[in-house]
Design a protein that fits this description.
Layout (H helix, E strand, L loop, with lengths): L10 H18 L9 E5 L6 E4 L15 E4 L14 H13 L5 E5 L2 H7 L11 H4 L5 E4 L9 H11 L4 E4 L3 E6 L2 H23 L9 H11 L5 H16 L6
Parallel strand pairs: 5-6
Antiparallel strand pairs: 1-2, 1-4, 2-3, 4-7, 6-7
Length: 250
């Protein structure tokens, strides 16, 4: 669904390239789930127009030109040829429409975040600096009611996200947002790493040494000084991807 404005040197095309790279990196790390899950990126200031992966296409194969350009105000989207996955349309269409600040939305069922999301108490306890990164900065939604595939559920998830960038979706998975693909992917990286650390700590069966609220708040704030890492990290991940799975930029 390439448009005339998608010239290879445009900002929109670079957004396509970065989003395609994010899919392939996620697949390399085993974060994909069959041909489900979805990433999107807003291309209009109001968030209504956005890029989204095609229905049921493996993350490792997605190219920049494969991404669908959709409008959340189009009521006939799911009846059109090459319609997106209904769950992707529900979640991403409504979040982009209701939260235009969420320029990029990444939704996955990553192993450790999903494991934590399945606990009766899925609180991400601050036991070191990666877990503390999300202290008071992570929405936790425990209203799961089945596969998200209707308008009302998309609205509910947008409300559950609130003003946070990241959300642990109880009995489901994880959703992160960002101002750019690089920043959203960095949130996803650290959130999955934080969940891995906590799940591994839980697995020892020994008492956790949880940081005080004051120290956790300070550590979360300290992370703000390192936000620029996201761009360097994603730049290098794409360089590595060029060696192992090139072609995403086409």
């Amino acid at each position: 669904m390439i448009q005339a404005s998608d010239s290879r040197d445009s900002v929109l095309w670079q957004q396509r390239v970065d989003l395609a790279a994010a899919f392939r990196i996620a697949a390399q790390w085993g974060w994909h789930e069959s041909v489900g899950n979805h990433f999107s990126a807003a291309v209009s200031s109001d968030g209504h127009q956005f890029l989204l992966n095609p229905r049921w296409m493996h993350f490792a194969l997605i190219k920049a030109s494969d991404l669908l350009l959709l409008d959340s105000r189009d009521p006939d989207t799911l009846q059109r040829p090459h319609a997106p996955d209904p769950s992707a349309w529900c979640i991403h269409g409504r979040i982009h429409a209701m939260k235009p600040r969420a320029r990029v939305v990444l939704h996955l069922h990553t192993p450790y975040a999903t494991a934590l999301a399945g606990l009766a108490d899925p609180t991400l306890l601050p036991i070191e600096q990666c877990t503390a990164r999300f202290f008071n900065r992570l929405a936790i939604d425990q209203g799961y009611s089945g596969i998200a595939d209707d308008h009302a559920e998309g609205d509910r998830l947008a409300h559950a996200l609130g003003e946070h960038r990241c959300m642990l979706m109880g009995n489901h998975g994880v959703l992160v947002t960002g101002a750019s693909v690089a920043e959203a992917f960095e949130e996803l990286y650290y959130l999955e790493r934080a969940c891995q650390t906590l799940v591994l700590a839980y697995s020892t069966g020994r008492p956790l040494h949880v940081l005080s609220d004051a120290l956790a708040v300070k550590t979360a704030s300290d992370w703000d000084d390192y936000r620029g890492m996201a761009f360097a990290h994603f730049r290098d991940l794409k360089l590595l991807l060029d060696q192992t799975n090139p072609g995403y930029e086409n």
